[in-house]
Design a protein that fits this description.
homodimer, 204 residues, Tetracycline Repressor, domain 2, 10 helices
Chain lengths: 204, 204
């Protein structure tokens, strides 16, 4: 075989992957996750279904990769490193900014359908759930914990607080409102959570 | 028709319902929610599938009723009104007791499979999600909000705090750890959440 087939194959492969990701995201948004199949994704992407099975064992894996790719592209377009958390020295303001951005993202229809489908699949399928958490959620939580540790160094958070648990006071309420539709997601709500978590609900 | 057929039919109907609930809970625990079908539930319960369709439009509805029945029975056996929240006058101790009981319940295998299946179905199917939240989650959250309002009257919680948002600081982290397996659920974790929520993570 001539040498140049390798780069051609690689370019073809990148094009196929993009088409597969786009097809998976479109189908989940249009007909829902339960009715989306590997066959349907293959047909829409214009590839054979064996091409998909060669790279991914299940439709959940295709959708997870597609969603990670979408997230990375969105961050790139916004000119950000993914999941950046500001450190202006004002912890309350920084956390409000992070939480308000999370609200905007959770309400964005392009993210809503695939994120909800992956979260639902992850509840029943423990392996998918662990991968979803490890690849999508944990990297953000680690940055959040790092910001809280910096706040401990500057005295804005008590030294005896566990940052990994503390971050759940404002991250988890947002996640649950989104996942289970237990209440509206707004910037005002995000701000309130940050205030309660920092200063507590008991009188000072 | 003789008069006594009505009570007979009613007893038969109660027996059928119990058998259907037991079959639905057993199948979800044994083979998982996605593979559980109305036909399978009917076969296991020893009833015709039309009997099930007469009472419930979908397997999600059967499972929701079965789970509500299981919860009511468990509360009855423990001699409790469902979802009781103590008011000993010590808010921190009362919230720790409620949260520790929630941890025990979330780790109970009899509740785990159906509760997780309903939560997952509720993520994708908005109608099931709203019913799950309205009938299972909201009644507990309302009692929790009522306990926080009593604490506002006694001065243990600031008057300007919104109880419905405040309760999410300790309820939602527990829910998310359970739903997404983001960390271990223990009594120590429950106690830590209550402490952070009451007194905040900033120095006092």
């Amino acid at each position: 075989m001539p040498d140049k087939t390798a780069p051609d194959a690689s370019r073809r492969s990148t094009r196929s992957r993009s088409a597969i990701y786009a097809a998976a995201l479109a189908l989940v948004a249009e007909i829902g996750y339960p009715r989306t199949t590997i066959e349907g994704i293959a047909a829409r992407a214009g590839v054979g279904k064996q091409t998909i099975y060669r790279w991914w064992p299940s439709k959940a894996d295709v959708l997870l990769e597609a969603f990670l790719d979408l997230s990375a592209q969105a961050a790139g377009q916004a000119g950000q490193a993914p999941y950046e958390i500001p450190d202006t020295g004002d912890l309350a303001a920084d956390l409000r900014a992070v939480l308000r951005a999370a609200v905007d993202r959770l309400l964005d229809p392009a993210f809503e359908a695939p994120a909800r489908a992956l979260a639902a699949e992850g509840l029943l399928n423990e392996q998918v759930g662990r991968e979803f958490v490890a690849r999508l959620l944990e990297p953000r939580l680690r940055l959040c914990a790092r910001r809280l540790r910096a706040a401990q160094d500057s005295g804005a958070v008590r030294a005896d607080v566990d940052p990994r648990i503390a971050l759940e006071l404002f991250v988890s309420p947002l996640a649950q409102r989104w996942l289970q539709r237990t209440g509206p997601l707004t910037h005002a709500y995000a701000d309130t959570l940050v205030g309660y978590a920092l200063y507590g609900i008991a009188p000072r």
